């Protein structure tokens, strides 16, 4: 298939581009490199541009016969979305709707969308199943839910096939060590713990030690980025006109912040300097996916089922790329 991957130079996008190419798909990447890295993708396949540049994208669709789009391009910081919601609604909703309009115009009816467990807000229980209430508690989560709903409406009305994939916490790096996680303003626990252990970042802040969990810290579901990438390839190959999929992608197992820290220490052989801090507003105690539907419908199975294995790949990437892609 000829596939356009928006945001394909970002963390999850670049791993998905690699997985798509390994399966023989013909891939183009559209990314403005605001957060992505040109070194993360084959440069002869990278178009540097913004979603808002409708004419440019329009020209691309006129000159390329694209079968499907995987849409990663978005802003993805929960905290920032609270302080600057306009940035999120414009990019994640307005400019995404512009993309959907172009897909309609060019009769491209197959879409895989990066959604998030943030659409659930604070779930009534865990593990979380897809039918649980969607009550996002921040602008970021609301932007994801809005696009899920728009896609569902477009799919009903225009006979599209789509898969909205609700990721839990993406983690790790490619097993071959070629690409990994390099977010500007990193906010994810595993890279922050590793970079703190390497002395590249300040001591790790543990937000909340009084949650109703066995060790008092938050529990999250970490899913290896290559497992996420594989699920995108499988979803892409599964969808056809009339396919409506909303699927959780997680390992189905939760680890606490303290478990992540001790695992980083065991894998790296270094101490993770930490400071305890107050809870952050809106951080649920526990978020763990029930990924059964993705397994049954896509035939997908996470290959990384152990936190240490995930962290080993992240450690390999960070220890060989202490300054991320700038180390290359
Ligand atoms: N990382 C996670 O754990 C996680 C969890 C749930 C959902 N998601 C979603 O997955 C997607 C990818 O996340 P990521 O961690 O790879 O983030 P990322 O920031 O590494 O990747 C996003 C990419 O999109 C590009 N981009 C953003 N706005 C753009 C625009 N207007 N035009 C062109 N390119 C644009 C950025 O430059 C970047 O390369 C996002 O939609 C995010 O909301 C991520």
Characterize the structure shown.
By secondary structure, the chain is an alpha/beta fold. It folds into two domains: 2-171 and 222-249, NAD(P)-binding Rossmann-like Domain (Rossmann fold), CATH 3.40.50.720; 189-220 and 252-327, UDP-galactose 4-epimerase, domain 1, CATH 3.90.25.10. It contains ten helices and 14 strands. The strands form four sheets. It has a seven-stranded parallel β-sheet with strand order 3-2-1-4-5-6-11, sandwiched between helices. A three-stranded mixed β-sheet has the order 12-9-14. Helix 5 (139-158) links the parallel strand 5 and strand 6. It is globular, with a radius of gyration of 19 Å. Nicotinamide-adenine-dinucleotide binds next to helix 1, helix 4, strand 5 and strand 7.
Annotate the secondary structure layout:
Blueprint: E1 2-6, H1 11-22, E2 26-31, E3 46-48, H2 54-63, E4 68-71, H3 78-83, H4 85-105, E5 110-116, H5 139-158, E6 161-167, E7 169-171, H6 189-197, E8 204-207, E9 219-220, E10 222-224, H7 225-238, E11 244-249, E12 255-256, H8 257-268, E13 274-277, E14 286-287, H9 292-298, H10 307-320
Parallel strand pairs: 1-2, 1-4, 2-3, 4-5, 5-6, 6-11, 7-10, 8-13, 9-14
Antiparallel strand pairs: 9-12
This protein binds nicotinamide-adenine-dinucleotide (NAD).
CATH superfamily of the largest domain: NAD(P)-binding Rossmann-like Domain
Average pLDDT figure: 96
Low-pLDDT runs: none
Architecture of the largest domain in CATH? 3-Layer(aba) Sandwich
């Amino acid at each position: 298939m000829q596939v356009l991957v928006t945001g394909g130079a970002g963390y999850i996008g670049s791993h998905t581009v690699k997985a798509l190419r390994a399966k023989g798909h013909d891939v183009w990447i559209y990314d403005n490199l605001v957060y992505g890295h040109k070194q993360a993708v084959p440069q002869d396949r990278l178009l540097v541009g913004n979603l808002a540049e409708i004419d440019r994208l329009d020209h691309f669709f006129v000159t390329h016969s694209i079968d499907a789009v995987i849409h990663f391009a978005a802003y993805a910081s929960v905290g920032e979305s609270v302080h600057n919601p306009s940035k999120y609604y414009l990019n994640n909703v307005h400019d995404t709707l512009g993309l959907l309009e172009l897909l309609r115009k060019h009769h491209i009816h197959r879409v895989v969308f990066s959604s998030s467990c943030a659409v659930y807000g604070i779930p009534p229980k865990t593990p979380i199943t897809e039918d649980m209430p969607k009550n996002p508690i921040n602008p970021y989560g609301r932007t994801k839910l809005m696009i899920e709903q728009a896609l569902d409406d477009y799919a009903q009305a225009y006979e599209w096939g789509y898969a909205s994939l609700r990721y839990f916490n993406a983690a790790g790096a490619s097993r071959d060590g070629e690409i990994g996680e390099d977010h500007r303003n990193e906010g994810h626990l595993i890279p922050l713990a590793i970079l703190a252990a390497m002395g590249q970042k300040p001591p790790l802040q543990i937000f909340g030690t009084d949650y109703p969990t066995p060790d008092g810290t938050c529990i999250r579901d970490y899913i290896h980025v290559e497992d996420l990438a594989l699920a995108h390839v499988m979803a892409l190959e599964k969808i056809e006109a009339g396919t409506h999929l909303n699927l959780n992608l997680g390992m189905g197992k939760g680890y606490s912040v303290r478990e992540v820290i001790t695992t980083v220490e065991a894998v790296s052989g270094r101490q993770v300097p930490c400071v305890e801090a107050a809870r952050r507003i809106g951080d649920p105690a526990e978020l763990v996916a029930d990924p059964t539907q993705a397994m049954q419908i896509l035939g997908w199975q996470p290959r990384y089922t152990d936190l240490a294995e995930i962290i080993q790949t992240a450690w390999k990437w960070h220890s060989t790329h202490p300054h991320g892609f700038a180390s290359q």
